[in-house]
Amino acid sequence: VRGVDIFTYRGEYDKGYEDLREQMEPIFIANWKMNLFEKEALAFVRDLAVPKTGSVIIAPPATLLFPLKQAIKGKSLALCGQNFFFEEKGAYTGELSASQLKDSGASYALIGHSERRHYFNESDAWIHQKLKSALAHHLIPILCVGETLDEKEEGKEEEVLSKQLHTALEGSDEKALSSLVIAYEPVWAIGTGLAADLFLIERGHAFIRKWLEKHYPAIATKIPILYGGSVNEKNAASFLSLQEVAGLLVGGASLAAPPFNAIIRS
Ligand code: PGA
Fold first, then answer.
1. Is residue 118 flagged as an active site residue?
2. Which of 31, 80, 94, 257 is the S-S candidate for 108 at Cβ 3.0 to 4.6 Å?
3. Is 204 in the pocket of ligand 1 (CB under 6 A)?
4. What distance in angstroms lies between residue 130's CA and the mean position of ligand 1's atoms?
């Protein structure tokens, strides 16, 4: 994707991060949300292309983790849980724990996705507990952060991002956090077909990077920051051309292999 000349945009926020993208291989996450059945999931894995560079992670509904664990054997694919509860075990009907996610084949877990925050009232305090639980069980947390449309219109993006980061990561050991992945997903861009423009993505990513440099200087440059929100086969390459975008979290365009293949081959 690098050096593609249709991407002429180079904003002020990219400066200073020129080396970063060179070090990081892109990460592509297929977040299926509450979609797909076993047959479709297996067909997806069968038809999935190899990315140009980088790695692919599938975040299926929990019911599909076990069949996919078998199906991805021998392939360089990883699985990600979409959700879990932070307690170790016990009387929590309907829930599953971080260690159960691991047992089902997941090595990553989404934490703080806006749909969990908004439809299921997940608070920053819960997200903090989930992050701690993921780290304790060696599940790599993919922490999703991003502002709503109202917050954007009020110019509160940085305030929101900093609060979400602060509450989620507070008190965590810097070394333990070195596995962390962050996804910047402006809520207004998710599932709307209105992806953020390159300027806003750069600005959001640069803010998160600066926040990390301030609070976790030893690991700040190692943490990949992905973009998510209406990524498709047409816009993926432009996002990946930004130095700070270390990968993409894809919802709608990951539900079938052809569009997702186009994205990972961008
Ligand atoms: P979308 O979802 O690609 O359908 O906008 C992204 C996400 O929610 O992770």
1. no
2. 80
3. no
4. 21
Q: Which two tokens stand for residue 247?
A: 């990968």
Phi, psi of 39 (to 5 degrees): -60, -45
DSSP for residue 50: P
Could you read off the pLDDT of 244-257 as tens digits, one per residue?
999 999 999 999 99
Pocket flag, ligand 1, residue 190 (CB < 6 Å): yes
Cα separation, 30 vs 52, in Å, equals 16
229 lines ligand 1 (CB under 6 A): yes
- Kindly report the backbone phi and psi dihedral angles of residue 85, in degrees, each rounded to the nearest multiple of 5, phi listed first: -105, 150
**Is this prediction's pTM over 0.85?**
yes
- For 227, phi then psi, to 5°, come to -110, 145
Please choose, from the candidates 172, 193, 112, 180, the residue with its C-alpha nearest in 3D space to the C-alpha of residue 146: 112
> Which of the 8 DSSP states describes residue 253?
G
Ligand 1 proximity of 30 Cβ (cutoff 6 Å): no
- The residue annotated as part of the active site, out of 115, 147, 157, 185, is 185
Q: Cα–Cα distances in Å, from 22 out to 74, 188, 244?
A: 27, 30, 10
88 as an active site residue: the answer is: no
